[in-house]
């Protein structure tokens, strides 16, 4: 059903003449760190490939390499840059040296939905947006699709949580960057590992739990490991991109470029509502399975909000001092979110 809707959307915005403009068959290598069964693979990557192939009359096809077959989650940007892959699932928080400004989405605190977040991100990271100009263009890649995770929560295997003060001393998975700042401010000991490595680290007792997106718990095999989960907090988020080598993108005609860009926006906006629904369903399932769901009281939420606002200012200032436009990105981020709400 979702794919049929996407095809209709594409047909309305891209003429048959565009599809006929492809002159030779092209097969693109698509590197992915996500499992083939992941929600984002099902709702974004696969529908986009199918839509592009159909809109180009089968002249643009794909070889999809999920589950880190071509490289680890941290390698995805370099795979696209070096031509090992034409497209890759690039997660900015895993490449903070190259994409530090995109860490704006890793900051905690701000209330926004996945759909509001992705609409704002596409405005910032495509076209003449500040992230497109300052980060993606200099790195030789172009964002075609994106999702923005709903606010991250804390999950623990056995350590009880009833208050934000119970977080002190916990060793929790962090993706690094701004998440480390958030963890440290709360007295958490951040352990920087990728999402695919988290379940094993919890099983071994290397960490007590994770700061993680709710949709990743089942996808990475953690459902049976967690006993406590927060809800309604915002320990940060993440903007996740599917990006194509700019050199490869420019090898296509303007008509095919239009197909790729339009399909990317269509699937990104269609997927965000599914993601939001999936989070709500996941919380209900955990509760039914005996997981203790923790909602912090209003006074503790206010305490965290003040703490998180300061983290945002520190993040921007640190980038400013490195000669990067951190404060400008922070301002643009808030403006884009306001426009999306």
Detailed description of the structure:
This protein is an alpha/beta fold. The protein folds into two domains: 2-148 and 238-278, Bacterial extracellular solute-binding protein, family 7 (D-Maltodextrin-Binding Protein, domain 2, 3-Layer(aba) Sandwich); 153-236 and 292-340, D-Maltodextrin-Binding Protein, domain 2, CATH 3.40.190.170. 47% of the residues lie in helices and 16% in strands. It contains 13 helices and eleven strands. A six-stranded mixed beta sheet has the order 7-6-8-5-9-11, sandwiched between helices. The chain has a five-stranded mixed beta sheet with strand order 2-1-3-10-4, with helices on both faces. α3 (39-55) links the parallel β1 and β2. The chain is globular, with a radius of gyration of 20 Å. Residues 11-22 have low confidence and may be disordered.
């Amino acid at each position: 059903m979702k794919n049929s809707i996407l095809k209709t959307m594409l047909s309305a915005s891209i003429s048959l003449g565009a599809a006929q403009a492809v002159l030779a068959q092209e097969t693109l290598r698509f590197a992915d760190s996500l499992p083939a069964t992941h929600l984002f693979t099902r709702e974004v990557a696969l529908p986009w490939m199918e839509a592009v192939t159909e809109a180009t009359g089968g002249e643009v096809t794909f070889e999809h390499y999920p589950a880190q077959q071509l490289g680890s989650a941290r390698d995805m940007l370099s795979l696209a840059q070096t031509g090992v892959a034409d497209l890759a699932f690039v997660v900015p928080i895993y490449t903070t040296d190259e994409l530090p400004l995109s860490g704006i989405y890793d900051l905690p605190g701000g209330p926004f939905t996945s759909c509001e977040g992705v609409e704002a991100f596409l405005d910032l990271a495509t076209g003449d947006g500040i992230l497109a100009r300052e980060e993606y263009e200099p790195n030789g890649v172009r964002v075609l699709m994106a999702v923005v995770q709903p606010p991250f929560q804390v999950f623990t295997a056995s350590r009880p949580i009833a208050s934000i003060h119970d977080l002190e001393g916990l060793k929790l998975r962090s993706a690094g960057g701004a998440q480390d700042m958030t963890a440290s401010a709360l007295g958490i000991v951040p352990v920087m590992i990728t999402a695919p490595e988290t379940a094993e680290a919890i099983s071994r007792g290397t960490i007590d739990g994770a700061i993680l997106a709710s949709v990743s718990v089942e996808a990475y095999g953690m459902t049976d490991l967690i006993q406590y989960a927060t809800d309604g907090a915002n320990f940060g988020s993440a903007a996740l991109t599917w990006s194509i080598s700019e050199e490869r993108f420019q090898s296509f005609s303007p008509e095919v470029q239009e197909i790729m860009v339009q399909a990317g926006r269509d699937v990104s906006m269609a997927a965000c509502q599914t993601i939001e629904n999936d989070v709500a369903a996941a919380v209900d399932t955990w509760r039914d399975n005996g997981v203790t769901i923790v909602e912090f009281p209003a006074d503790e939420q206010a305490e965290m909000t003040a703490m998180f606002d300061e983290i945002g200012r520190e993040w921007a200032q640190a980038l400013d001092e490195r000669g990067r436009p951190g404060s400008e990105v922070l301002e643009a981020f808030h403006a884009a979110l306001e426009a999306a709400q």
